[in-house]
User: Fold Phenylacetic acid degradation protein/carnitine operon protein CaiE from Hydrotalea sandarakina.
Amino acid sequence: MIYKFRQYIPVIHPSAFVHPQATVTGNVIIGKDVYIGPGAAIRGDWGKIVIEDGCNVQENCTIHMFPGITVTLKQNAHIGHGAIIHGATIGENCLIGMNAVIMDNVVLGNECIVGALTFIKADTIFEARSLIVGNPAKKIKEVSDEMIQWKTEGTALYQALPEQMRLYWEPCNPLTEMPGELDINDIEQAYKTWNETKPRK
Assistant:
């Protein structure tokens, strides 16, 4: 659902995928290979929203601002399910965990990781590669090269998803029974969760 607001019409690169159950309004720019999931609300009515190349904004996220503010998701930012970004700047290759809340005038340096359910209060600035958790949020350590590699590989799955959605996604009627044994999905083999990447003790 794409809506004009006043003179502003969203600008969406043809390689991006915006789910039809997402809502994009007004002064919004969406770059290359961006994935916007169902239920996302990206509302550029009072200010501007820039979502740079390679970002993903997952299901039920909200992006908005106070009047006159620009929200920027820099290249390869990864916004987890249900997160809220309100008037903030998210640095390149950052990961925002599920249901995190990032408030007004927050600036995250590049390659920060924000834990799920974290609350970052207004006017807070975190330097690059901060691992941020809690309510209120605090930096607990530096993000390691290993963590960034894991994050980057996860984001790459979302960067491939727009094209996969165009190829394979279509409305259908549900089956009434299981069709038999299903093959293991190739994606399950291509990417491991953080716990799976760590050696067992």
Q: What stands out?
A: The chain has one domain: 2-142. The helical segments are 145-168, 186-190, 194-197. The chain has a mean pLDDT of 93.
